[in-house]
Specification:
Number of strands: 19
Strand content: 15-25%
CATH topology of one domain: Nucleotidyltransferase, domain 5
Number of helices: 18
Oligomer: single chain
Helix content: 25-40%
């Protein structure tokens, strides 16, 4: 009976490319992680603030971990595959070969990592324009987004990279293209205006998630020509955005005709299985938890729309994902982005890029008690920061009553309880800690056609584990601490202003 049930189960592969490693999971149709594997990837730091990777190294790691997680199942039961990754920039030439993003001419190093800060002067100049498109990124563009990186390449690697570049991919899009895309030989055959040419154009698609969140694409108006012209990248407008994407898919939509024979062989998967339009890694984590079925848990969000929830993905940095039916502009918070995570809904994305920087009241003592106090203060500072973000979102129009946590820090009981106590909201933990991988698998499940929508797949594959409720006994104490926290934030801004001047 057990073997019969197993052979009827449908499986999906989720692949997550982080900063230092690639992970894969085999996830069944009920959202259970059956197998999991991980492999490190290389990072080069040729000079301060420059971080580079190799797309070939990343793809090889994707293939290795995928083969590990599928080795014990019948390949015919695997229905789809989904990718998520960091929002790093991948550069290839017109023949889809890696192109160096460095002055050393090392073509294998063709990825500028998300955390690379080489484009500081470029992003400053972009922000000075005060272009209206910046209102969709909290008013100020981050150096970690793609336009400043593209501008840096044009200004510093004009002949060696900019002029030779065929395509610029966000890393999640590169992976879905690698699984479904055309080869250089097929491109040569497609130069004439034929159906093949149209097919080529469609296979060079991009995910709405990456383009909207990191490239300034507008889901209602597309690319804004005036923005690219005013920042000095009018070249992209002239070629009708072919290099950065002019065919856009919503997360979970099937890409092309599925897995190509070449990619299928490299991944160890069946040819033609569904490949989904990708997501940024944090957004995949949000997808893996925010839509879970909460019936029977007596939570305030049970009879409320999904917009009453916020997903908190806690790792090296923390991302706060809130969704709404209408666009909400929150000062200092990225978005609103339409359909960037959940199709049909707007997304706001808050974050703490380095947690625990506000810790006050340190003493010179080095005893264990003082160390424990520093640890507690750090965790409380992170939770107070979360409350600050939530209150900014609520002041702008969000109605939030429940937090959904995932990621490494969600395993920490004190971290979770402090978030419940300080925000005053219940915290829902995912049954599967690897929610990012579940989110990637949900994409593959949706692309396969086994679920009618992303929302249905989220509800059936995102499973609730533990619910942590706030302890209201110390509410007054944490309210006072929050008052202090807000003053510290205000003072820190003043100190930064003094040092800048």
């Amino acid at each position: 009976m057990h073997s019969e049930r197993q052979t009827s189960v449908k499986y999906y592969v989720g692949i997550d490319v982080g900063s230092a490693s690639v992970r894969a999971a085999l996830v069944d149709e009920f959202g259970t992680v059956v197998m999991h594997a991980e492999q490190p990837i290389q990072i080069w730091e040729p000079q301060p603030d420059h971080y580079e990777q190799s797309s070939a190294d990343i793809w090889a790691a994707c293939c290795a971990v995928t083969k590990k997680v599928i080795c014990d199942v019948d390949a015919s039961q695997i229905r789809g595959i989904g990718f998520d990754a960091t929002c790093s920039l991948v550069v290839v030439d017109k023949q889809f070969q890696p192109l160096a993003v460095n002055s050393q001419g090392q073509n294998n190093r063709n990825v500028i990592m998300w955390m690379d800060h080489r484009a500081v002067s470029q992003v400053d100049r972009i922000n000075v324009t005060q272009h209206r498109i910046l209102s969709y990124v909290g008013g100020v563009m981050s150096v970690e987004m793609q336009p400043p990186k593209l501008l840096w390449i044009k200004e510093n690697l004009q002949e060696s990279c900019w002029e030779k570049a065929g395509y610029f991919f966000d890393l999640p899009d590169f992976l879905s293209w690698k699984a479904t895309g055309v080869t250089a030989r097929q491109q040569v055959l497609s130069q004439q205006r034929t159906d093949q040419c149209i097919e080529l154009w469609q296979l060079l698609n991009r995910s709405l998630c990456t383009l909207v969140c990191k490239w300034t694409y507008s889901s209602d108006g597309g690319w804004d020509d005036s923005f690219w012209k005013v920042i000095g990248l009018e070249d992209l407008v002239k070629d009708k955005y072919e290099k950065i994407g002019n065919h856009v898919l919503s997360p979970g939509e099937p890409v092309g005709k599925g897995l190509t024979p070449e990619a299928a062989k490299e991944l160890g998967l069946p040819e033609g299985i569904a490949v989904a339009a990708s997501l940024i890694d944090a957004h995949a984590g949000g997808l893996g938890v925010i839509g879970a079925d909460v019936r029977g848990h007596n939570l305030p969000c049970e009879n409320q729309p999904i917009t009453s929830r916020v997903a908190l993905i806690c790792g090296t940095s923390s991302c706060h994902m809130g969704i709404s039916e209408t666009p909400i502009f929150v000062p200092g918070v990225w978005g609103p982005y339409f359909s960037a995570m959940v199709p049909g809904l707007w997304l706001n994305e808050g974050g703490q890029s380095a947690t625990g920087k506000l810790v006050v009241g340190l003493t010179l003592s080095r005893g264990l008690d003082e160390l424990a106090l520093i640890y507690l203060a750090t965790i409380q500072a992170i939770a107070l920061g979360t409350r600050h973000i939530l209150e900014a979102m609520e002041a702008a129009g969000h109605h939030i009553n429940t937090l959904f946590l995932c990621g490494g820090l969600s395993k920490n009981p004190l971290f979770v309880q402090m978030h419940a106590d300080i925000t005053g909201k219940p915290v829902v933990l995912s049954k599967e800690v690897e929610s990012v991988l579940v989110g990637a698998a949900i994409l593959g499940a949706c692309a396969s056609g086994d679920f009618a929508s992303i929302q249905e797949a989220m509800a059936k594959m995102g499973k609730i584990g533990r619910v942590v409720r706030p302890n209201h006994e110390h509410k007054r104490f944490y309210d006072k601490k929050y008052e202090v926290f807000l003053k510290l934030v205000e003072h820190q801004r003043e100190y930064r202003s003094i040092m800048k001047s």
